[in-house]
From TrEMBL:
Membrane-spanning residues: none
Species this protein is from: Paramecium tetraurelia
Ranges for domain EF-hand: 457-492
Protein name: Rab-GAP TBC domain-containing protein
The keyword DNA repair is assigned to this record: no
Family statement drawn from the similarity comment of this UniProt entry: Belongs to the recoverin family.
Residues annotated as domain Rab-GAP TBC: 88-283
Length: 585
């Protein structure tokens, strides 16, 4: 599959036919046409490891001989050769690049693999059917990976990828495994050993990727990803590119390949490593966004974006030097402030859509909670009233505060800017319809005054619950989040609750004491006084509980026999009343 015509040199863009160049070539790496002046270098192209599946590199007649490549590919190749030498990159081998990226991380990890059957199956399936093999990467990464893997057999390579993914999934069960992680793990194993790859992966997912990027939360799938996409589109619009509509469609279709795999499926090796390096240095997702914008701006000039398979061609156009230049400026396309405003705006918009009492919204809410439509309407109504009133209160309070603060401002213009930016972000946040932590805690207190049947949690526990459901970490539960939270808290099954508290506490494991506390919250008090409860505790005892162990516990007969009846009547009335009550506090 080759998408270009022999017309222009891929480096200098000279018209090859008009010049009547008798001698033009095809670059043996990127497979693009190139003029003689722009292809003076030769390198040894890797033999694809598994010829059976390999994308044919038909242009190479003899893999033992150095091949003519274009200047772009030569620059890319030289870059990673230097890296391979400088850092001693080799498959599943600890290299210096790791500490350059994420510092010296604790190297001891407990290898307790209690992975769920479904995760295990899907990881095995992805890796063993070859979804992590070098030949599936783009033209440049394929060469880089093959070179790092040289000398190791396929079984060993696959085993190490599987080990990293299993480790990651068991330590991060809330996210679980998503396709694309296998490719991330493959690249990481080129720069570190299994343990290191696991640490870098952890770092990426916990420190760099915005919250809830991969979340499959009910009713708002991949909400962090959607917010990022919204931001990128708004930005592209403001750049006034000629074919904005095309670009926007392109982003809708190709967004996952650019965003979810951190540009891995688009950029060539040098550009990718420069982008990732910057991302680790800044500890931020912004370099990825900048790289996407640069790629799209370049692509919009060169390519017909409606053509199939174009995403693979884009990276051939991007030079790492251009990317480095972009990263050296703080606001090449946008500043972190501008990004934040857009992201907050997206969350504001979605939060407002959930208090809408349109049929479709109600239908969606009904589907993801265990309240019926009437109950939802009742709570929604009070929730909306609450939001509107608390908004006007907090805006006036905010105004007063800002006047006070500006009086105290120093002369420093930096402080001024920070302050004004902060103010603007706060204003966008105020557009949101939601309930904040304080109000949520008050509400739960109110609720319990009416309803003693439920186990009352202390404020700290409710804070954990709040944080858990505050998916996009905006310190505000929008109506969807709020309703899901209540529906599990008040009407959830034992297993749902256990999952909820477990994940609120930790992402990995609990000590036996902590776990018993957890059980004492979830299991009704009258059941706890029974003898059976003690033998149940003995039966399930473990010094340490992983997520999988915890799921096992919910299969215990004590739990399934006693799965207590969930209160259905009146709850919604009391919630609505409580909301109404806290409004005036
Ligand atoms: Zn040329
Ligand atoms: Zn090339």
């Amino acid at each position: 599959m080759i998408f270009f015509q022999k017309s222009k040199c891929c480096v200098c863009a000279k018209d090859l036919q008009a010049l009547k160049l008798r001698k033009s070539y095809r670059c043996k790496m990127c497979h693009q046409d190139v003029c003689i002046n722009c292809s003076e270098n030769r390198v040894k192209v890797q033999i694809p490891q598994n010829q059976l599946y390999a994308k044919p590199n038909d242009f190479v007649k003899d893999f033992n001989l150095p091949q003519r490549v274009c200047d772009n590919c030569f620059r890319d190749y030289s870059y990673y050769q230097k890296l391979i030498q400088e850092y001693g990159l080799k498959w599943n081998t600890r290299s210096l690049l790791q500490s350059k990226w994420i510092g010296k991380q604790e190297r001891k990890i407990k290898i307790q693999i209690g992975i769920s059957e479904s995760d295990r199956e899907i990881i095995d399936k992805d890796v063993i059917t070859g979804r992590s093999e070098a030949f599936l990467f783009n033209y440049s990464l394929r060469e880089f990976i093959t070179q790092c893997q040289e000398g190791y057999d396929q079984t060993y390579i696959r085993e190490s990828i599987i080990k990293v993914l299993q480790l990651f999934v068991t330590h991060y069960p809330i996210i679980g495994y998503c396709q694309g992680m296998n490719q991330i793990a493959t690249i990481l194993l080129c720069v570190s050993d299994e343990e290191g790859a696991f640490h870098i992966m952890n770092y990426i997912f916990k420190q760099i990727i915005p919250p809830r990027f991969y979340s499959n939360s009910q009713g708002a799938t991949l909400i962090g990803y959607q917010a990022e996409l919204y931001f990128l589109k708004t930005l592209l619009k403001s750049l006034n590119l000629q074919n904005f509509d095309q670009l926007s469609n392109f982003l809708d279709v190709s967004g996952p390949q650019m965003l979810l795999t951190l540009m891995l499926q688009v950029l060539n090796t040098s550009s990718l490593l420069v982008t990732w390096g910057e991302m680790f240095k800044r500890n931020s997702f912004i370099p990825i966004d900048q790289a996407i914008i640069l790629s799209l701006v370049q692509a919009s000039r060169t390519f017909d974006l409606t053509k199939q398979g174009i995403i693979e061609e884009i990276g051939k156009n991007i030079k790492y030097s251009d990317l480095s230049q972009i990263f050296s400026k703080e606001g090449a396309y946008f500043t972190s402030f501008e990004r934040q405003v857009q992201i907050e705006q997206y969350y504001s918009q979605t939060s407002r859509s959930w208090v809408n009492n349109e049929k479709l919204i109600l239908f969606r809410l009904k589907k993801i909670t265990n309240f019926d439509t009437e109950e939802i309407l009742e709570i929604q109504n009070e929730f909306k009233k609450y939001c509107m009133e608390s908004r006007s209160v907090s805006i006036s309070r905010h105004d007063r505060q800002s006047i006070k603060q500006s009086a105290q401002l120093t002369d420093s213009s930096d402080d001024d800017t920070d302050y004004l930016q902060n103010l603007q972000i706060q204003q966008v946040k105020l557009q949101k319809y939601g309930i904040n932590k304080e109000a949520f805690l008050d509400l739960m207190e109110q609720f319990h005054q009416h309803q003693t049947k439920y186990q009352i949690l202390d404020r700290h526990k409710y804070e954990l619950v709040f944080n858990l459901f505050d998916e996009n970490k905006t310190e505000l539960l929008d109506f969807r989040e709020f309703l899901i939270c209540l529906s599990i808290l008040l009407r959830g099954s034992f297993e749902q609750k256990l999952k909820m508290f477990f994940t609120a506490h930790t992402g990995s494991s609990l000590k036996d004491q902590e776990f018993q506390t957890l059980l004492s919250i979830i299991i009704p008090q009258d059941l706890q006084s029974q003898d059976e409860y003690q033998s149940f505790l003995k039966r399930i005892y473990k010094p340490q509980y992983s997520y999988q162990d915890m799921l096992q516990v919910s299969q215990d007969p004590f739990v399934s026999d006693n799965e207590y009846k969930r209160e259905r009547s009146q709850t919604s009335v009391i919630i609505a009343q409580s909301l109404n009550h806290i409004k005036y506090n």
